[in-house]
Structure formats: structure tokens, C-alpha cells
């Protein structure tokens, strides 16, 4: 379900800020994924136009171990390359710690995003306030404001599957 874009997304980082933002990718490549903890994962994705392999480190806003699913947010909005690439190629691989998982991207509705953001704010109140501030979204520390923020941010659930026995 598409999200209504009622805000302007923050500008993508450039220069040294882009290099700093890419540092976690290098940590994963160096085998230091466990240093990132369970709050971050390395997303492998395929360029929608180039077909080239790409990587992005994303914060995990919700992880459900029994169902082996990870939920991530497109903080820079639906125009983020990784988000658009997943739209074109939803079956991919993630790395959490040093473990790789075959996953399928499921794009969540704005209402599901509202629930996820409200729960994230309860678990990580300071991080939620900073995230909303960075994204230019109002957050008065109330459940209602976080739910509104969650409606504005696109969320993706990455659901693990066994490539030997894909779901029908």
C-alpha cells in the first residue's frame, strides 16, 4: 500500500557524511557484523536498472525471531535506492551478525507502519525522538505523534524463507 508523502525527505548524505554512513557496510564486509548487534542488518539488493549487486546497512526496528522476520524503515523515503530496488526484486539476502538469510520483502501499509513506530518508540524512546527530528516529523513523545510518524515512513518486513522450499 503506498504511503502518502506529506513531508520532504531529508537530503541524502554526500561527501564525508556519505562515507561515514557507509562505514557499517565495511564493518560487515570485514566480518565484524556481530559488532553491529541485532539492531542492524546488511541488506544485499540488486540494482533495478543496472542489475549490479548493492549493499546497505539498515536499522532493524522490529525482529521476530520465531518467524525469522526483520522490519526496517526507509527513513529517506520511498525514493531510497534500496527501497526501489526491493520493489523491483523483492527476493534477496540479508546478513544479521555473521548469519545470512534468504528473505522476501513485504511492503507494509501505513497503518502497519503506525503500529510498528509506536512500539519502536516504547522500546527506544530517545532513538525514536532523534529519528523523527532527523526526518522532520513532529514527535511530542506521545503515542499519537509516533503513530503519525509511522504512517509517513515506509516500512518493509524482510521475511526469511528456505530457498529449497519457497512459499507457494
Account of the protein in words:
The protein has helices at residues 15-29, 81-88, 110-123, 125-135, 143-152; strands at residues 40-46, 53-64, 69-73, 91-96, 99-107, 155-160. It has 168 residues and is of the alpha+beta class. A six-stranded antiparallel β-barrel has the order 1-2-3-6-5-4. The longest helix has 15 residues, at 15-29. The protein is globular, with a radius of gyration of 16 Å. Residues 1-6 have low confidence and may be disordered.
SSE layout and pairing:
Elements: H1 15-29, E1 40-46, E2 53-64, E3 69-73, H2 81-88, E4 91-96, E5 99-107, H3 110-123, H4 125-135, H5 143-152, E6 155-160
Antiparallel strand pairs: 1-2, 1-4, 2-3, 3-6, 4-5, 5-6
Helix pairs in contact: 3-4, 3-5
Portion in strands: 25-35%
The tally of strands reads: 6
Which value, in Å, is the CA radius of gyration? Answer: 16 Å
Strand ordering within the main sheet: 1-2-3-6-5-4
Put simply, the count of helices is 5
What is the helical fraction, as a range of percent? 25-40%
The whole-number mean of residue pLDDT values reads 85
**Low-confidence residue ranges:** 1-6
Q: What is the rounded distance between the termini?
A: 22 Å
Instruction: Write the element-wise H/E pattern from the N-terminal end onward.
Output: HEEEHEEHHHE
Instruction: State the major sheet.
Output: 6 strands, antiparallel, barrel
Structural class: alpha+beta
Amino acid at each position: 500500500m503506498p504511503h502518502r508523502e506529506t513531508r520532504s525527505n531529508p537530503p541524502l548524505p554526500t561527501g564525508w557524511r556519505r562515507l561515514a554512513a557507509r562505514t557499517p557496510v565495511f564493518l560487515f564486509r570485514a566480518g565484524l557484523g556481530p559488532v553491529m548487534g541485532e539492531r542492524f542488518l546488511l541488506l544485499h539488493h540488486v540494482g533495478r536498472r543496472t542489475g549490479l549487486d548493492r549493499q546497505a546497512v539498515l536499522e532493524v526496528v522490529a525482529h521476530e525471531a520465531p518467524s525469522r522476520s526483520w522490519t526496517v524503515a526507509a527513513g529517506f523515503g520511498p525514493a531510497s535506492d534500496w527501497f526501489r530496488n526491493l520493489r523491483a526484486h523483492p527476493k534477496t539476502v540479508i546478513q544479521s551478525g555473521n548469519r545470512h538469510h534468504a528473505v522476501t520483502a513485504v511492503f507494509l501499509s501505513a497503518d502497519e507502519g503506525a503500529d510498528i513506530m509506536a512500539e519502536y518508540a516504547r522500546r527506544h524512546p530517545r532513538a525514536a525522538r532523534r529519528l523523527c527530528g532527523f526526518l522532520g516529523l513532529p514527535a511530542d513523545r506521545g503515542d499519537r505523534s509516533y503513530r503519525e510518524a509511522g504512517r509517513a515512513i515506509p516500512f518493509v518486513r524482510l521475511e526469511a524463507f528456505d530457498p529449497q522450499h519457497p512459499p507457494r
